[in-house]
Amino acid sequence: MQKWMIFGGGGFLALLLGAIIGGLIGHFGFPVYEYGHLTRDADLGITQRIINEVDGDNIASYLKHLSAVPHVAGTKYDYEQALWVKDQLVSSGIDDVEIIKHKVLLSYPPNDNPNQVQITDPAGLTYNFSAQQPVLFSPEEGHPDINSNFLAYSAQGQVSGDVVYAYHGRPDDFKHLEDNGVNVTGKIVLARYGKIFRGNIVLEAEKRGASGVLLFSDPKDFSPRGRNQVYPNTVDLPEDGVQSGTLLLSDGDPLTPHYPSIDSAYFDDDSKMMRELPRIPAQPIGYKDAEYLLQKLGGKESPQEWKGDLTTDYKLGGTFVEAGTKLTMDIRTTREVKDTYTVIGTIPGSVEKDRYVLLGNHRDSWSLGSIDPSSGTACLLEIARVFGKLAQEGWRPRRTLKFCSWGAEEYGLIGSTEWVEQNRKILEKQAVAYINVDIAVEGNYTLYAKSVPMLYKTVIEATKKIPNPNPNEVTEGRTTIYDTWLKNSPSDGGRPKIYGLGSGSDFKAFIHNIGVPALDLRYTYEENIGSYPLYHTLYETYHLLSYLYDEGMAFMKSITQLWGEAARILADSLIIPFDVREYASYINKTFSEVESSYKNDLQAQDISLDNFRNAVAHFDQQATRFLDIEKSVDLQDPLAIRSLNDKLMLVERMFIDPLGVSDRADIVNHILFAPSIKDTYASVGFAGLTDLIEAAKESGAAEDWENVKKHLSVIVFMMQEAGNILTSI
Predict the structure, then answer these.
(1) What is the pLDDT of residues 220-241, one digit of tens each?
(2) For the chain, what is the mean pLDDT?
(3) Which of 171, 178, 176 shows the shortest CA–CA distance to 195?
(4) Which of 276, 309, 595, 646 is catalytic?
(5) Confidence band for 679, pLDDT divided at 50, 70 and 90
(6) What is each CA distance from 82 to 99, 101, 106, 364, 536, in whole angstroms?
(7) 359-374 b/e with 16+ CB inside 10 Å = b?
(8) Catalytic pick from 218, 409, 620, 652?
(9) Do strands 163-165 and 188-192 pair parallel, antiparallel, or not at all (unpaired)?
(10) How would residue 633 be classed by pLDDT, with cut points 50, 70 and 90?
(11) What is the DSSP letter of 549?
């Protein structure tokens, strides 16, 4: 009894002593742990702070610096600008900034002995095509390190012969030539930019036995106001303007497919990607030279829709008007292993440091690159400055923000692909979403957004908060970005049109290879001709953007605000705002389109879509059930919130096939979103399936129809699993 009483008394003294110590800790400022912040939702007041803080003068300053010199990947300017971007991020208060080097295969023209194209007439007189774009206005156009005209990864070689005009170089265009008795075998193909990716044009020509390819931009598409109303007075293409670009059809470094091109990598010069590089020479030319060439062509008249605005009849060719005339291409473009650089800046989240919202833009250009990509880079630096300032003032997002300046995008999304390959395991578990702004402003007509369905709600919500940069629109009562977007780009669903994600920019590795939801934003022009007129030319200057497109940087500022608010929504919301019902609606619609297009073809092969239809219905049902789960979640339980968010993050991952879609493991793994095999730029729902069906229809081979059945089974399995993850315990 006495022992118990003494122990009890000691226990009381211990409790009393603990209370006193606790009071002293609280009084003198020792940390007291609270957990309310784990379930605290976003501070909506941060939106207005982001909007107010974005500064157009800062954006203009960044842009002027970036577009003062050519910054082609793998050159000294590439590295210098990587260092400069790092310095800007550090000075903006970004916590951690690093430069990542990748050793990759790039391609360059021989500027001391440029690629040459010429026509020789029967008398032996030659007409030499322009090898370099002339200086027209801005001093920086005359920079000594500007490259001569070329297409990256073109094969080397000298070829001579007749020329065939193939319109836009699409499969149907080549079929029209064949149907009219025009054979391109052994011929040089002349084709127009504007409808499909240039690499697909060269591939189609090569498959049909062409010996070379010339590409040009017709003034009908790129100089609609006439040849006297062009840069530097308007945004239209002058006659010697030339669109450079890559011919690489896969993405990432061709020497290290599937794995990062770090110093310890195995570099395979006989990889599948290397074997798929062009085997025929190709070269871009201005429309002045294309006009001269077309005037020399004989052969049949081309269809009316194939005719442009050059002073010529647009004959199909195959022969020259004067017998004995020939065209010669002497292409000396090289392929070289070079170092390129990606810069990553990080603001750790206040609660979920291991969950990333990434903002990205590539830094390299084909020349001065004021629009592509420096408009986006300038906006990236400004939104990073804004978030850095907010962090220094005490606010941090719930989740980690990463600011990504990619290297070597122009050659084939190389920097972002290599970084994703290098960090794949981490990103698969921790990346919430990726927001890309490759080009911030290529016009001032309306917003242009590409997205996965689960992010539709995010972009729409964000646009309703951003002030309209167009004063004329504001006068008409349209006060936000959303208002003009809805008016100028409506969809059938009563909301603005949102496009699918093909390829062609740095979102590709995130969504198509590892299933991270992605969004791509820009301001664009009214007429869709495939690209803005001065795309990838020498004339992407500071003058072009700051005086002809966006004087005062109003639209650049607007995109920066939108980028920041979309990132804030994803990084700071308690529940990640992914819309699974929107996803289910998209899948239903896309399935109906596939069924409508191919039901008869499949029935003829005794292939049923019943399992596919059931899997679509299953996902739809599970998405509806998930909404009830989401509504009932205990918002005061941090583990329940984490579990719900994990399910949302896993949905997109469930559509990733590690073996690749249609055996395109080096290109795409997402069974629902994939670039078309006929046009890398275009997004097609269930592209793996539709590509296989088209191939089987063309060949008629039983083996190809078996491949269709196999891929259908994969789709059904993954659709079911994607639905199951939403309601799993």
Answers:
(1) 999 999 999 999 999 999 999 9
(2) 93
(3) 171
(4) 646
(5) low
(6) 7, 10, 17, 10, 21
(7) bbbbbbbbbbbbbbbb
(8) 409
(9) parallel
(10) very high
(11) I
pLDDT at 253 over 80: yes
Q: Which residue has the tokens 């590795």?
A: 509
Q: Are 391 and 562 contacting, i.e. CB atoms less than 8 angstroms apart?
A: no
Residue whose entry in the numeric block shows the structure tokens 């590089």: 277
Tokens 């977007």 -> residue: 485
In words, the CATH class of domain 580-727 is mainly alpha
Question: Residue 48 corresponds to which amino acid?
Answer: Q
User: Rounded CA gap, 100 and 338, in Å?
Assistant: 14
Is residue 608 part of the annotated active site? The answer reads yes
The whole-number average pLDDT for the span 71-87 is 98
pLDDT above 50 for 668: yes
Q: Which pLDDT score is estimated for 660?
A: 84
Helix and strand tally (H, E) in the chain? 24, 19
Are the C-beta atoms of residues 403 and 384 closer than 8 Å to each other? yes
Two structure tokens written together for 331: 């292409």
pLDDT single digits (tens) 85-137:
999 999 999 989 999 999 999 999 999 999 999 999 999 999 999 999 999 99
Kindly name the residue from 168, 536, 543, 670 that is annotated as catalytic.
670
Which residues lie closer than 8 Å to 297 by C-beta, 6 or more apart? 163, 165, 315, 316, 317, 319, 320, 321
> What is 110-332's CATH number, 3.30.365.10, 3.50.30.30, 3.90.230.10, 3.20.20.80?
3.50.30.30
**Element containing residue 323 per DSSP (H, E):** none
| The two three-digit tokens of residue 654, written as one number | 């469930």
pLDDT bin (cut points 50, 70, 90) of residue 278 is very high
Which strands sit side by side in the sheet containing 163-165, from one edge to the other? 163-165, 188-192, 212-216, 282-284
Q: What is the largest CA-CA distance in the chain?
A: 127
Let me know: does 316 contact 302? Beta carbons within 8 Å: yes
Given the residues 91, 608, 699, 713, the one annotated as active site: 608
Minimum mean pLDDT among 7-11, 189-193, 355-359, 677-681: which range? Answer: 7-11
**Which amino acid, one-letter code, is at 171?**
P
String of b and e for 88-99 (b: at least 16 CB within 10 Å)? bbeebbbeebee
**Structure tokens that stand for 284 in this block:** 């871009």
Is 670 noted as a catalytic residue in this protein? yes
Contacts of 581 (CB under 8 A, 6+ apart): 623, 624, 627
The whole-number pLDDT of residue 61 equals 98
Q: Residue 685's pLDDT is what? A: 84
Over residues 622-640, the mean pLDDT reads 95
Give the three-state DSSP class for 343.
Answer: strand
Backbone conformation region of residue 209, classed left if phi is above 0, alpha if psi is from -120 to 50, else beta = left
Question: What whole-number distance in Å separates Cα of residue 689 and Cα of residue 671?
Answer: 8
- Is a pLDDT exceeding 80 seen at residue 13? no
pLDDT at residue 23, rounded to an integer: 47
Q: Per-residue b/e over 418-451, b at no fewer than 16 CB within 10 Å?
A: bbbbbbbeebbebbbbbbbbbbbbbbbbbbbbbb
The identity of residue 53, as a single letter, is E
480-503 per-residue burial string, b: 16 or more CB within 10 A, e: under 16: bbbbbbbebbeeeeeebbbebbbb
168 as an active site residue: the answer is no
Tokens of 533: 């007129």
In the block, tokens 């005062």 appear at 552
For 147-192, the pLDDT digits (tens) are 999 999 999 999 999 999 999 999 999 999 999 999 999 999 999 9
Cβ-based neighbour number of residue 330 at 10 Å = 17
User: What is the mean predicted confidence (pLDDT) over 390-396?
Assistant: 96
H-run or E-run covering 401: strand 399-406
- What fold characterizes domain 47-106+336-572? Aminopeptidase (3.40.630)
pLDDT value, residue 37: 79
Between residues 51 and 661, the one the model is more confident about: 51
* Residues 619 and 580: beta-carbon distance below 8 Å: no
Examine the residue annotation and report whether 367 is marked as an active-site residue of this protein.
no
